[in-house]
Amino acid sequence: MQRSHSMPFGAQVLDNGSVRFRLWAPGARLVELALDTPSGEVCRTLAGPRDGWYEIVTDAAHVGSRYRFRIDANLCVPDPASRHQPEDVHGVSEVVDPRAYAWQDRGWRGRLWEEAVLYELHVGSFSPEGTFDGVRRRLDYLADLGVTAIELMPVADFPGTRNWGYDGVLPFAPDSRYGRPEDLKRLVDAAHARGLMMFLDVVYNHFGPEGNYLHVYAKKFFTDRHHTPWGAAINFDGADSRVVRDFFIHNALYWLEEYHLDGLRLDAVHAIIDDSRPDILEELAETVHTQIGADRHVHLVLENEHNQSRYLQRDTEGRARHYVAQWNDDIHHV
Length: 334
Description:
2 domains
């Protein structure tokens, strides 16, 4: 099983211990890296822009370093691809090395979809602790119920201490109220040891209203040509949409590869408006299945009010070409 996912976004720890920081900020004139150090904040100017990208490699940062990006010598913002937000959505981001966690599930290849008995839970309310560890300590209870797959409601970093998860704003950062990234990995590891699959609910149709700074320096993430219940739609099919599409495709790969998850449930895809072909749902699924390969059972599930069967087609061998199943909104609405 692949250990970690190398992303074009965010902070990446290099083999020599230095860190590469990248930010797509086509609306910024100047981007600086603001590092927290024992002697105070240290700023470094990122090179760019090159097609809207700013980048710096520095040995002043390391695993555990806390940082923000300063836009146009004014506003400090978190990394939109932050792996950890110890101080919530407005605070600093933390450099995380995904290779540091020692996985124990080397023999795990997942389970067939036909074996899935899903139990959906909210990390913050499932246990008295309201944490990933709280869920992990109750895995035997779930296994004894006959559950074979656990679906976590969205964990992307959200403002405050409690949230359903559907107003997340930093989609790569498991919310710090639930624990650190390694706590979620321990939960997945422990589930696999018991033969349980782990799914995650992900939201690719909008960002929450508080803590989303993309509109300040990357307005091209959004488009006024389409509208959603939350305002301007995410730009999946307009000018400069390639970076936006990659952001969400890499997010799906990130959860499946870096966290060894067995599947994703994509929330309310009927609110994703994309007139291009292949559309983002098709490209995301095709990329996931190609990159993960046939040696793992990885399942993608849709919530789609439109009931579009074309996303649920199977190949000649009976395998899902894109998505294996659909959340039944008709029952939900009744």
